[in-house]
Specification:
heterodimer, A: 513 residues, alpha/beta, B: 366 residues, mainly alpha, 74% helix
Chain lengths: 513, 366
Amino acid sequence: MEIIRCVGVTRKFGDFYANKNIHFSVAENEIKAVVGENGAGKTTLMNVLYGLLEPTNGHVEVRGDRVNFTSPVDAIRASIGMVHQHFKLVPTLTVRENVLLGAEVKGTINLAGRSVTLPLLSRRKGRAKVLELIERFGFDLDPDTLVRDLSVGAKQKVEILKMLYRSVDILIFDEPTAVLTPQEIDDFFDSLRQLKKQGKTIIIITHKLKEVMMISDSVTVIKKGEVVKSIETAKTSERELAQLMVGRDVLLSVESDHSASPNNPLVYEVENLSTRTDDGRKVVDGVSFGVKEGEILGIAGVEGNGQSELIRVLSGLMRSTEGTVRMRGEDITNSWPRGLRDRRIGIIPEERYVHGLCREMTLAHNCIAGYHYNSEFCSRGLMKRRAIEHWRDRLIEDFDIRISDAGGQLSSLSGGNAQKIIIGRELESNPDFLIAAQPTRGVDIGAIEFIHTTILALRKKRKAVLLVSTELSEIMSLSDRILVMYRGRFIDEVDARNVTRGELGLLMAGVKE
Amino acid sequence: MKKNDPQRNTKAAVTLVNAVSPVILAFLIGAVVILIARENPLSTYWILFSKSLFDFQGLMKTLHYASPLMLTGLAIAVTFKAGFFNMGVEGQLLVGAFAAMIVGTSFPAMSPVLLVPLCLVTGMVCGILFAAVPAVLRAFFNVNEMVVSLLLNYAIAIFLEYLTSGPFRNPSSGYVSTNMLPDNAILHHLGGTKLTIFTFVALAVFIVMYFLFNRSRLGFEIEAIGYNPSFSEAVGMNVGRKILTIMLISGALAGLAGAGWLMSEKYAYTLSFSGAVGLGWDGMLIALLGAHNPAGIIVAAIFYATLKVGVQNISVFTHVPSEIIALIQAMIILLLSLKMIGGPNTRGYKRIESLLDSGRRKEKIG
């Protein structure tokens, strides 16, 4: 039976169609995947379903009844809940408090045989309710931990609990796996199967086709705001979906020839580098490596083994406690980010919206950030507006950045297009050495292909690249050599030409030989 | 580039509504009080505005009063844009004024061509030096600049009170005051109006600040730091040093406001130099009202000066107590803290969006 039906839903932003005449339905108790490139309009459609946006035209039916949501409150009342990509939790409250927030359980007392509701909250009853939900869905959570102490995967479970507590039957997930580690993804899929078993309907927005094939019952492909195809998952393939999404054949993986010569001169050298976190833990422990001209050095590892801190030290955001970093022989240990860029080091930071971009600023300003000191953009303290806009247009053109308004703010861009701004900014400035941290995290396949090709092109120009990624296939197809990081150290170095996924996986888990 | 971006138009409209609606509401509440005082609110408000805006002498007077307010408003806005607060504008203004007074009275024989700029520059420099205290503490020792700058206001006010009533007291004056500025250090009224050079100085500063905010690299950096300090650092800005610079600019504006007000209006430092609320505190309200944007601040400063000038006329021409203006000011502050329209997902925002949208559609049909 159809539980949700969109009839000709159209949503316009100005003159831009984010959704155009969408017909889309979800059957009860299925897992529906909605796929499409970044900016294709998936999120807009879901925001319409969740009452965050009202459709310009068309309408939504839930269980056959036409609904008109003006806010998420209406959607929740119609038993539709959404788990956003960026969690909306209060870090200083416990799991229980976060789940109950806004729908607390009042205490009751018995007065002469009648139950009277008190204007007080009952901690005990609330806790019992949350605990019951946790057990019913087999989530491994303690209701009394503070949310700030939870892992990302556990936080996501709290978000799901929040919705379940509000007796939601239909759960929408916006890019749920973008922030999860491989293990957490498996765990998350288990939760989804559990939810399905309990009769819930699930819609998941994603662009990771592997996951679509693994978990969903049916899939709808959206391209440029329109539905291209809806099909049962069993009747399609990853390749076909990719082709539908992008509108052309896509290379699911761009492969390097892995032929860097070991005799090329050294560009970047790190010797015995260590750093500690504020609470004194040694997270990077005496690592050494060198990157040569025309070489891509990959650093693989399970998230949380010191790669993030290593990147932060190398990009000037965290101080090292020991060791040296040299660029073409010059000591640049603990240089400011500006000093690094002056020495032609490009940086693609791990956290896109924290260190790479500023959502509230214009596209143009984001396109020059880090290079705003250059005489090309700024003379005698005044910004050259023309030159900056010209540069922005060049990046948009060269890096195929899809936008509705070039003069607008960065926040109007989808994740993949925002990432392309960083890539464009760092590469168009022609660096000699590029630090690329998780360059394709949360980016759709069309853009991944593009980013990978761009990085390989840089290698071809005999530039050096340090690639840090938790995505194994990315590391394996691009790198010449691979270092595996485990507990702050390199456990081994392998040749990318003759290593298997299994071998790398073992190394990542800390098993050597 | 598209000029008529609907998203930006909506944003601008929301900012405007948020700034104007508290003012209108405050006047409505004021009207009720005037009615209770058995006067006609419309004619009272007419007197308030017409005599200070639509009358040449009145307008000049209003602009004169607006001058220090523009500067203090800008002084607050420049720090707010960068995401922190200089709460010490009032104190920096007093220091600037007192220092200008000392210099002015020390060189009575110097030619005004030299003495006037010297006094103004001294005011600015001393404003900078006084602002440097919280700024240095913040930049190098990470001490909260809001607390330090706020508390220093009271410390400096009392210190200057001591200087005014002790070492610098004018013995021939009937009340506590320093010596008057010599004629050479005074900014004279122009063409029989209240207007002095100071207003033009303030306007020049406004133009400089406008460029600083919108065109300069520092403006770009201020914006970035205000929105996202970790981003700013990652793209190579030395955030600590920038905050220092911004704080010192703020202090310079405050010091200039003090020196200018001394030389164009007060001529001597008295215990009530800055007025009952204080020009620095008024600046905070003006910055808020002007949405921390230079053009908005100039409008807000003139509006505020209109009230200040108008209140004198109200007490002359009506029986409405002049406290009515204090009431309206207080109401504006109170209502400003209530954000009438929130972010893009609120009902009010959507309503404005659809209003603008339907307006556009009509335009197209017409």
